[in-house]
TrEMBL record:
Presence of the UniProt keyword DNA-binding in the record: yes
Record carries keyword Transcription regulation: yes
Listed name of the protein: LacI family transcriptional regulator
Lineage, broadest ranks: Bacteria, Bacillati, Actinomycetota, Actinomycetes, Streptosporangiales
Pfam family, one: Peripla_BP_3
Species annotation: Actinoallomurus bryophytorum
GO-annotated molecular function: DNA-binding transcription factor activity; transcription cis-regulatory region binding
Residue ranges of every copy of the HTH lacI-type domain listed in the record: 1-55
Keyword field: DNA-binding, Transcription, Transcription regulation
């Protein structure tokens, strides 16, 4: 909910609404009453940080530390990019832990003026935090779309995972592969579902019959290797894997083993272009997320809110880049 929507509902200007909130003595009593009715009817809550920006802006942006498996490398790289982007805009990043009473921790940090707003990194399907922040007028931006709920009023920046995995399939097809498997998370992770959808879309576009060549596992190398081994044990096994992350790709590479020449028996493409992808022997191709651009967009969107620009609540979708590393696996079997 924005101040412009309140103004439209009350039939007044944005400045009049602002005056009712900050200097009601400047507004006629009947007009102020009409504005307050619109505020109550719409459930509008002023942006707290924008209201207090001049008085006690902290110039700090809060980011909760997270530790689910598989995200530490991505978080480290994003944090570096976010720190640089925030610093260029005159802000600092404040890291904090919130094991218990997470929502209370967010509110305390805003109430005490410790931070001006937040970046949400670990946004899950149906995450309760975006609507909670929005109802309280707390500035925030998500890295990743708030899936499983209406998110048109939430600021977010995301990377098109479906596009990235589809480019991985295009690359593998260009090398002659026709049996291209997908290995990723179980259904329900949101971003994982989108990456799998990119594989399925590209397979259909290339006329590949790969509906049975998909597997899921926990995001560990051991679990991924076991899942990939089950696919590789089939009468017509895959000759290549497009994977939801580099961890899954490493597991698939290990499951495929190496031939007499020491070269991997299956070709794999990962996602995230982590350091592990470059350190494998031979190095793996992988889809690289544009984390520097993500960070710049996140900071810009948050600063807009802190400055009172709350009318444009929309998302930014960025495209990743496929990084190919030259090596040739086995000749594809058709």
């Amino acid at each position: 909910m924005t101040i412009s929507e309140v103004a439209a509902a009350a039939g007044v200007s944005r400045q009049t609404v602002s005056n009712v909130l900050k200097a009601p003595e400047r507004v006629a009593a009947d007009t102020a009453a009409r504005v307050r009715r619109a505020i109550d009817d719409l459930g509008y809550r002023p942006n707290r940080a924008a209201q207090n920006l001049r008085q006690r802006a902290s110039r700090c942006i809060g980011l909760k530390m997270v530790s689910p498996p598989g995200v530490s490398n991505l978080l480290d790289r994003f944090l570096h990019a976010l720190t640089e982007a925030a610093g260029a805009a005159g802000y600092h990043i404040l890291l904090f832990a919130a094991v218990d009473e997470e929502l209370g921790t967010y509110e305390d940090l805003i109430r005490t003026g410790t931070v001006d707003g937040f970046v949400l990194f670990d946004v899950e399907v149906g995450d309760p935090r975006p609507p909670w922040f929005a109802r309280r007028g707390i500035p925030f931006v998500c890295f990743g779309r708030p899936r499983g709920q209406r998110h048109e009023r939430f600021r977010w920046v995301d990377v098109d995972g479906a596009y990235g995995v589809a480019r991985a399939v295009d690359h593998l097809v260009s090398l002659g592969h026709r049996r291209i498997a997908y290995l990723g998370w179980p259904e329900g992770t949101g971003f994982g579902d989108e990456r799998r959808a990119g594989w399925a879309e590209a397979a259909r576009r290339h006329g590949l019959d790969v509906g049975h060549l998909t597997a899921t596992s926990a995001e560990t190398v051991t679990a991924a290797a076991s899942a990939a081994a089950r696919l590789l044990s089939r009468p017509e096994p895959p000759t290549a894997f497009a994977c939801g992350s580099d961890t899954f790709a490493i597991g698939a590479r290990l499951a495929g083993g190496t031939g007499a020449s020491g070269r991997p028996n299956v070709e794999v493409v990962g996602f995230d272009d982590s350091a592990a992808a470059t350190l494998m022997s031979p190095p793996m191709s992988s889809v690289r997320q544009p984390l520097d651009e993500v960070a710049r967009c996140v900071v810009a969107a948050l600063i807009d809110q802190l400055g009172g620009v709350d009318d444009v609540a929309e998302g930014v979708m960025l495209r990743p880049e496929l990084v190919t590393r030259e090596w040739r696996g086995p000749e594809p079997v058709h």
